[in-house]
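Complex record, two chains
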Amino acid sequence: MTRLLHLMIVWHTVLFAVPAIHAQPLQTGFSFVDEGTYNKINTTTPLNYDNRILPQPTFGQMGTASLSLGYSVFSGSLGFTAVTNNLSKPEYDYRIRELSADISVTDEINLLIGKNILKWGTGYAFNPTGVVEPQRSPSDPSDRLNQNDGRTLLSLTAYHEKSSLTFVYLNDARVVNSTLYWGTNEYAIRANTFLSGFDISLIGYYKQSDRLECGANFSYVIGDQLELHGECLVKTGSSYQYHRIITTDNEKQIFISDPYMTLYDNSKRIFYKALFGGQYTFNNGVNLALEYYHNAEGLSSQEWNRWMNFVKFQDAIQKGTIIVPPEMVEPSRLNLLWSLKTFSPRGTMRDYFFARGFYSTESWSFEAICFMNANDMSTVLVPSVTRRVSENCSLYVRYTAYLGRDGSEFGSLFTTTALNLGIGVQL
Amino acid sequence: MIVKRINQMRHKFISLALCVVMLLAIKIASAQMEQSIERRKDTPTAEEILHQSDLSRNGWESYTVITSIKNYVDEELKDEGSFEVSMKGADKTLVKFLNADVKGQYLLMLDDAMWIYMPNTRKPIRITPLQRLMGNASNGDVARTRYADDYAATLKREQVIDGVSCYMLELMAKREGATYQRIEYWVAKENLWPKKAEIYLTSGKHYKTIIYDKYRLISDRVLLSQMTILDALREGRTTIMTFTGYTQRDIPAKYFNKDYLEKLR
């Protein structure tokens, strides 16, 4: 109901904002993905003792459908999701992934209002300068299940020759019980141009009550086969929340409340995220992409080890190998749950490598993704094969292996392998 | 006395014959010279031939054409795709993918630079010229059809191809972003329409052959309607490209701005 109200508010805003609707045919698109997943549970991870802290299914099925509509200046897409697994009842969900009006104010200026996905980065798996885009996983950069949603925004873009200037105002306003709640104001600006073969962007971003972030990105092609790209985003201080255990050597503690806090809010320390990568296409059509990513907000090896020792301490309590007063067992379990907040889908530590190999024929395509933590060398390997059955239908097999020693980032995840079998339909 | 008289007559005859031969030789030589001068006047320069041949591959300054590509392996149809190609000037090309499985996908070419926009990644991705559109057809086969802008031409010889008298040009890439490094290009003498092209890699290896098969009268001009690409490296692989629905239209400049791609539907 609240989402319907949200939809109506956005729609009415759009209708009043647009003086005239030009006659254009209704454009429709539909995609559907049904995927079955078989997981092998990681029984040795200290984060999920005996699969009891946050039980993981061994089998799951997920169906997602995305309906997109476009008419005149309006466009939108609705997402439907159905999930079932061997541990819980089936769940259904629908959401408005995007809904916006894009108005040509003049021949060179466009105004966009509504919920929309904007992407500004040049990287493949990581986008430090993608300050306005939804979060995504480097092990699934193409969002195969259509899980990324747009953000509520107003953007004004001026185009001139090979350059553009965009100003964006974002506010994730929500309607709850018929009341509109405004979110935090965010502002972003981007200037892009194409100069001497370089595609260059300068980016500024400010979130209310936070700090200004500035960055730049580029892409450049050398010869027929090699493309290079890079991104950098810099700020002073950080509002990122860290587990307080990373500041101490005494990891044998049990916190009685959420232990996450900002450590560098008032700091003058420079934090930067940087990416450098490239892609090379071989004469036989094989495309290879490589990227290196550094995130100064990530945990250092020492901080990770402190946190991991803390998790192992809680795990030992759950297993009963460390005896604590009975009333402390449940808080210890809560500490394990809270600890999961440390994990970020875009990497928890500081340095990462990404590699992707891709080759396709008329009917088959082969992809292999390798996402490696350069600090502890743990790795996510994702080979996949897709068979194109017809213009509208394809079948795929995707295997994910989380490799790493005990206590490493990817070696500590809840599953060790996952096998996905799926069918995709596009109309 | 008689002998002397005979000798004098013989000398006169020989002198006369020599004069006649010389006159004939001068006549023939001058005729040939005139012919040669005339021919030189008629033969356009290599650049002119190339420029004229481009006109039959490009409708207008700003236009749209539907390009269909069919890939065959050993004469069996393996794959097909359709694209709406919009061109503005010599350096701007926008390709809209029309097949259901790549719906919403665009390729933008600005000068030598290329970006591909895919709806699932929702951003333009910079690509290299070698990344192929489909089968044997490279992006450049669809998007870069003004050879005069990309290649320096040299007229090598005249040659008959399939019964058609042609100029044979050698095209060498003069820009870094040209689709190919070297092309041997045959253009029909009669109408300056492209007839055939042989593409060579930098290594000198024969890469592919393009046959310009069919032309059609569209509005006031004759334009290419079909070409066949034969893979010289992998035998039996053929691509047929057909061009239909040529439409002259004024396409807004912002459509060719990389950041506008996400707004196109």
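Note: Chain B touches chain A through 39 residues (CB under 8 Å).
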